[in-house]
Design a protein that fits this description.
This protein is α/β, with parallel strands linked by helices and about 250 residues long. It contains nine helices and twelve strands.
């Protein structure tokens, strides 16, 4: 089990963060309960999807660890319900699954999960994923209150006809309202904070997802596609997020 002394010490003076584990495998629940409590998290659990949705609405967790393959309603449906409910709409969700196909990971992310980890997993990697999710979630909340140092020239960022209000988190293009998930918002915020600057994949991964390693993930490409679908809603709409082959992306007209 990882030591995590610095993380644990930094949390001792603060209220314990609540993690809700939704999984039908009792051994997984117990493994996560022991490990996360050692790392100074408060852990609640539910053994099926219906119980998980109810528990999430009741305890208002700081993070949900959600298994995809469960009897009854599966993890994808649980994720949809959490995202549709105002009480749990913004709760960070880390999905666990035995499926390792790219299309399955994309479905999970598109449903509203913040990250995706394949079973069997290493606890140290799980812990780093949790910390990264919580860091970017905290940045998003700070941005919503206008308290982040990343906001440039006030509360509104604008590029061409695309506007992002960092105080209200509202995004519009040519006056059309655009609804974004928390991760989509953070990615667009990064692009609009650095217009015409080529951002390599490692920088994007680190700033938006909080990872210090790149690995084999294609999560950036997935979320860039989501953004393009929303801000470029027709073939005649000029593309603003440009691909720089073998490097990354740039926001330019």
């Amino acid at each position: 089990m990882p030591q995590g002394d610095s993380w644990q010490n930094s949390q001792e003076k603060q209220p314990l963060l609540k993690v809700l584990v939704i999984d039908d495998e009792e051994n997984i629940i117990e493994f996560l309960r022991l490990g996360l409590r050692y790392e100074n998290f408060q852990v609640e659990s539910a053994s099926d999807g219906e119980q998980g949705v109810t528990a999430a609405q009741r305890i208002n967790p700081d993070l949900v660890i959600l298994d995809v393959m469960m009897p009854g309603i599966d993890g994808l449906e649980v994720c949809r319900r959490l995202r549709d409910n105002p009480t749990t709409r913004d709760v960070p969700i880390l999905m666990l699954t035995a499926k390792d196909e790219v299309k399955d990971r994309i479905i999970g992310l598109k449903t509203g999960a913040d990250d995706y980890l394949t079973k069997p997993f290493d606890f140290d990697e799980l812990l780093e994923r949790i910390r990264a999710i919580l860091r970017r979630h905290n940045r998003a909340r700070a941005s919503a209150t206008g308290s982040t140092d990343d906001d440039i020239n006030g509360q509104v960022l604008q590029f061409a006809d695309l506007r992002l209000n960092t105080a209200t988190r509202e995004v519009t293009r040519s006056g059309r309202q655009i609804e974004l998930t928390a991760t989509e918002y953070n990615l667009l915020h990064l692009f609009m904070s650095h217009p015409r600057q080529v951002l390599d994949r490692q920088t994007i991964l680190n700033r938006v997802w909080g990872y210090d390693f790149l690995g084999e993930t294609n999560i950036i490409e997935v979320y860039v596609r989501y953004l393009r679908e929303k801000i470029e809603d027709s073939p005649s709409t000029p593309r603003l997020i440009q691909t720089v082959r073998s490097v990354g992306y740039v926001l330019k007209g």
